[in-house]
Structure formats: C-alpha cells, structure tokens
Amino acid sequence: MPVINYEIYVEAPIEVCFDLTRNVDVHTETTAKTKERAIAGVTSGLMEKGDSVTWEAVHLGVKQKLTAKITEMERPYRFTDVMVKGAFHSFTHTHEFSQKGDGTIMRDRFEYRSPLGILGRIADRLFLEKYMTRFIADRAVALKKIAEGKRQKN
C-alpha cells in the first residue's frame, strides 16, 4: 500500500490553513487542473466531522466520481477523510497542522490501495504514485498561495 507524505510551511495562522484545507470552494479552486467539482453531499463551504462530498473530476484523462467522508477532526490540528466510493480500492487522507513561529506546517499523509490487485500495484510503480504525489503537492502549493495572500491583505 503506497503512502505519500508531503509537508509545506505556510506563513499564515494555523486556523486559516485548517479552514482553507477543508473548504469545498477552495478545494475546487486548488484542483482546477483536474476540473474537480462537488456534485453531492457538502457542495460549498466548510466541511465538518461526519460530512461527505462527492467529487467529479478528470484524472489521467478519465472522468471519475469519488465520495469521501470526514471521519476524524480535531480543530485546528488534524482531520481525516476516507474514500467511501470511488476508483481506488481504498484511501485515507490525513491532514495535519502544527504552529511554527508565526506560520504553520501543513502535512498530508495519503495512504491508498489501488484496485485490480497486481495490475493496480504495477500501475502504482509505473505512474500512479508519482501522479498522486504531484497532485497533493500542487494542491498544497496552491493552498499556501491563498493562505499567504490572505495574510498580506490583513
């Protein structure tokens, strides 16, 4: 089972980073490359523990739907979303936040299992793990820009 860990420092308060990360509208903005949009469940605003959202997006040239549910939340330090329906066999995505000076360290831990057994494991090695790492990193960089932009406006 691949595990992707990604960490980025953001010059913004922990509460700002936490709320931006669980905001459906911001998620749509930060994943524009894949045309992600919320089509069911929570479709706008902040998600809370127990909430679910169904995303429609184009990944690897294929239009897909994926439903995730927030199963754990400890504001403003951590929340976890778990796939309940979608292309993966399973995934758990933990978002962690820790204060560092005037800023925040945002950490993503994405654990997943690909479908199709051995074929899925081959896909992981050939391209999927790299694709998912880039997707998570790109979104984190976009969140950093938004959070730091909000700080400059204040």
Per CATH, the architecture is: 2-Layer Sandwich
**Total number of distinct structural domains:** 1
Number of strands: 7
Using the alpha-carbon principal axes, give the shape.
globular
Class by SSE composition: alpha+beta
- What proportion of the residues is helical, as a percent range? 25-40%
Give the assembly state of these chains: single chain
Count of separate DSSP helical elements: 3
In whole angstroms, how far apart are the ends? 43 Å
What is the string of helix and strand elements? EHHEEEEEEH
**What is the fold-level CATH name, i.e. the topology?**
Alpha-D-Glucose-1,6-Bisphosphate, Chain A, domain 4
Radius of gyration: 15 Å
Features:
alpha+beta, Alpha-D-Glucose-1,6-Bisphosphate, Chain A, domain 4, seven-stranded antiparallel sheet, 3 helices, 7 strands
